[in-house]
Amino acid sequence: MSTPRVVVLDYGFGNVRSAVRALERVGAQVELTADKTAAAQADGLVVPGVGAFAAVMAGLRGVGGDQVVDRRLAGGRPVLGICVGMQVMFAEGVEHGQQTEGLGEWPGVVDRLEADVVPHMGWATVEAPPESVLFAGLHDERFYFVHSYAARSFPLHDSPAEHLTPPLVTWAEHGDRFVAAVENGPLCATQFHPEKSGDAGAQLLRNWLDSLR
């Protein structure tokens, strides 16, 4: 069985080193780069992200990452977004009254969590659909979250186009429900950090790698 080749996109934001190490530990051949050709040709592309939605979008556009993601997905090539790397897949982010256009792979808005304590920081369980590939073998496991913003609805899941398979949406709660992960054909993403989520996160990354083979 061949070793999947994975590029972790290096655009100036994200917990890139820990993501690289976590993927290497579960069997991936990993390259950390902003090179568009390498990112386009890899078996899998990981888009990490920490910090502000607008800054992450500026960083992505600065290295042509928005084009790489769009072209990979148009060709059915797998992409995994992590934390703000998931948030920017949505149409829009709203932070401190500032609206920023996202990559628009999914409809919907990322905005501030409505909870007594923000940021949401720590371990939490998630509610994954039974047919999930990412969460196979991970029932009742906890994952590590660090975020103040999230998508609190997923319009494409509520009313998918008739000819498309509905995305698999995993939910979590902090104050109210928010999207914790999405599996949508070649595009998968998690709001939590699998690279910081111990054995459960490692298994999730292994499940994603297995889907690349």
From TrEMBL:
Q: Spell out the subcellular localization from the entry.
A: Cytoplasm
Which reactions is this enzyme annotated as catalysing? L-glutamine + H2O = L-glutamate + NH4(+); 5-[(5-phospho-1-deoxy-D-ribulos-1-ylimino)methylamino]-1-(5-phospho-beta-D-ribosyl)imidazole-4-carboxamide + L-glutamine = D-erythro-1-(imidazol-4-yl)glycerol 3-phosphate + 5-amino-1-(5-phospho-beta-D-ribosyl)imidazole-4-carboxamide + L-glutamate + H(+)
Q: Which residues form the Glutamine amidotransferase domain?
A: 7-209
Q: Which InterPro entries match?
A: Class_I_gatase-like, GATASE, Imidazole-glycPsynth_HisH
Entry keyword Endoplasmic reticulum: no
SUPFAM superfamilies, sorted: Class I glutamine amidotransferase-like
Active site residues according to the UniProt entry:
83, 193, 195
Pfam families membership: GATase (PF00117)
The pathway to which it is assigned is: Amino-acid biosynthesis; L-histidine biosynthesis; L-histidine from 5-phospho-alpha-D-ribose 1-diphosphate: step 5/9
Output the CDD domains linked to this UniProt entry: GATase1_IGP_Synthase
Function field: IGPS catalyzes the conversion of PRFAR and glutamine to IGP, AICAR and glutamate. The HisH subunit catalyzes the hydrolysis of glutamine to glutamate and ammonia as part of the synthesis of IGP and AICAR. The resulting ammonia molecule is channeled to the active site of HisF.
User: What quaternary structure, including any partners, is listed in this protein's UniProt entry?
Assistant: Heterodimer of HisH and HisF.
Checking PANTHER family in the record gives: IMIDAZOLE GLYCEROL PHOSPHATE SYNTHASE SUBUNIT HISH
Protein name, as recorded: Imidazole glycerol phosphate synthase subunit HisH
Give the organism's phylogenetic lineage: Bacteria, Bacillati, Actinomycetota, Actinomycetes, Micrococcales
